[in-house]
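ping. complex inputs:
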Amino acid sequence: MVREFSKVGVVGMGTMGAGIAEVLARSGLEVVGVEHDEAGVERARGHLERSTSRAVGKGKLTPEEAETLLGRIATGTDLDALADCELVIEAIPERMELKSELFARLDALLPADAVLATNTSALSVTELATGTSRPSKVVGLHWFNPAPVMGLVEVVRTVVTDPSVVEDVQALVQRVGKTGATAGDRAGFIANALLFGYLNNALRMYESKYASREDIDAAMRFGTGHPMGPLALLDLIGLDSAYEILETMYTQSRDHRHAPAPLLKQYVSAGLLGRKTGRGLYTYAAPDSPEVVADDSTPIASSASPRPVQRIGVIGTGTMASGIVEVCAKSGYDVVFRARGDDKVAAVQKKIEGSLDKALQRGKVSEEDRAATLGRITGTTSLDDLADCDLVIEAVVEDLAIKKALFSALDEIVKPGAILATTTSSLPVIECAQATSRPADVVGMHWFNPATLMKLVEVVPTVTTADDVVATVLEVCKKTKKHPVLCGDRAGFIVNALLFPYLNDAVKMLEAHYATIDDIDFAMTKGCGHPMGPFALMDVVGLDVTLAIQRTLFEEFREPGDVPAPMLEHLVRAGYLGRKTGRGFRDYSRR
Ligand code: CAA
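pong. complex structure:
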């Protein structure tokens, strides 16, 4: 028989503890929350009130339900108030000595059959369990911030946990409306083990001034559909917690990628702990407020004036090229695209007509706009027809020799002062620039697929690109309703450099038999709000493309942890490339 807990203690009522208490009380459980001093109790009550009134404001709770919920949570500073709890969850700072000491006290205080749970993200649950007189009744219960919103709780069992305790706790997780993923005791469990390498990588990117914090975050939100960018997420998690989690992960993995970025330590030492203190990587309107306000690090817009652009040339006939043609023409630019044959010209025209027809049916464009857009598009097979373009965007095959030859030809043909842009996602933009006599006019413009839907464009100036060229491309992005981000000319720009090592890590986790494809995908979608888990995403992107990008990143950065996972190599060799071949990590042929 599954045990039904009715009274649960929460020790440590910070952001996580208060969130956990709210979730438990919302499902009718009686909760006792303990903080170490009155100020902590005050903060916790403030947090609970703000969070529940947010839920009321969003129609998730009625005012009466919110009041009843708050009434179910008793708060205080005395651990003895937990004496009759059937389960106590600790959510105190991520330090082993603090947690061990607390567990020793709880062990002495609570009835022998009470369950002790830790919300640790990375510390050893086994070590905590074996320090008590009831190791079989100790589990990890790892929640995600904000606990009232995120759907996942990782239930961590150690080698000594009684399976029935895991079942009881799983039942509780289900009862409070969350889904439990059971995981073994390894630093970071499933979600954090994948998330924190990515977060740390983003921090290093910011620390090295490769891109602004705003652009790093916007790139990941608009490029991958994540609900938050990595730096804003670090602020939400708490920079102190993030530091401790990375530190513990590094101690266990000795993977340099987990060594906390020095910048993180500086913020923690300065007491700038993120949203909860009103200042972290960003500055907030007040402690605990989600509202970001400008500060000294807010980027200042460049004063360079954009060059006039009316006519845009696009080279290529692939998905990317035809998407760019459509987007630019829709935004009022005259567009001439160059294909290698008349059949390809016709195919692109047909594709764009089809896309506009769909938009018309969905009421996204009017009949007149459709006709005007098509009227602005001309196809050609001759590069010479691009001579009077103000901006030429190439979207041909990712082959450096082909791109260099093309840039050299464009340099001869296109009028002086025109900008030449490459959509490359993996080749150095500077190589294209050096193939011309006008390197100052060459820039990277990395669009995302499908260009008609994805808002992001990574704008990549090289060391030679002129400021007004960047200003012009930013202006074109604005006019085409895209969100541009600026980054340096190195492999993967922002999105691929952050995304693919994370995907590769997921493959390595699978390879190590720590978790299944479904568990990992589930953990990342429910725990972190990603629109797709890593395996679902790789199957869509293509395993061959994933492998090629990961290889490029490894060749550029030579980071040992970024060596492509052998399993990825094997699947590609077997021809399992993802949805496009009917089989990748998952088999789609029988669905
Ligand atoms: N109770 C119930 N529902 C609530 C609520 C509450 N107290 N407060 C907010 N909500 C609901 C809102 O009604 C809203 O629901 P709908 O979408 O149905 O309207 C939803 O939660 C989102 O809330 P908001 O509108 O207030 O905020 P938002 O849309 O700006 O989203 C966010 C904020 C949920 C934080 C979102 O940005 C997100 O999912 N970010 C990713 C967070 C993440 O990755 N967390 C995991 C971090 S790792 C971790 O925590 C583990 C660790 O060990 C460090």
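Residues 38-57 form the longest helix (20 residues).
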